[in-house]
Specification:
The chain is an alpha/beta fold and 186 residues long. The chain is 54% helix and 11% strand. It is built from 7 helices and 5 strands, in the order βαβαβααβαβαα. It starts with a strand and ends with a helix.
Amino acid sequence: MKLLLHTCCAPCSIQCVKSLVAEGIKLDLYWYNPNIHPYTEYRSRMDSLREFAKGKSLTLVMQDEYGLRSFIKAVESENSAGPAKAARCAYCYRLRLGKAASMAAEKGCDAFSTTLLISPYQDHELLKQICEEEAVNCGVEFFYRDFRPHFREGRQQAREAGYYMQKYCGCIYSEEERYLEKRGGA
């Protein structure tokens, strides 16, 4: 099986890649994350993923599209009452995973998946639902795995390897929430 694996960062990729390769799956990594802000965060995650892919001799397909203004505009317009977390996450998942499904079909892959499925902080059921919908839309299979049991091990391996370790999901709203929680104001 040839799989296109949407990747959000090196730490989330480590255990996903290890597991998939152990199953004998041939994979390429795919970077498309216009939701990540600010630009320094975007670059740090992208550069770390490049280093990981190179170290594992994996092909990394890059769609380097930093999109602060377009992301905020879309999230705000979809949510007239403000960017509620569930709605903005759904928009973000659909944006990135729709592109991943489309790219998998374009590259002739059998399926696509995402490293977002390793995070206990993501809405796992919503991710799965959106991936299944985008698979149908693009005519490519969604390859599902619950990687969450390997999350902590992957984080530890990323620290040991010296990969950049982010402190929030990626969007400017999650960064704000992280800051407010630190101050006890969320």
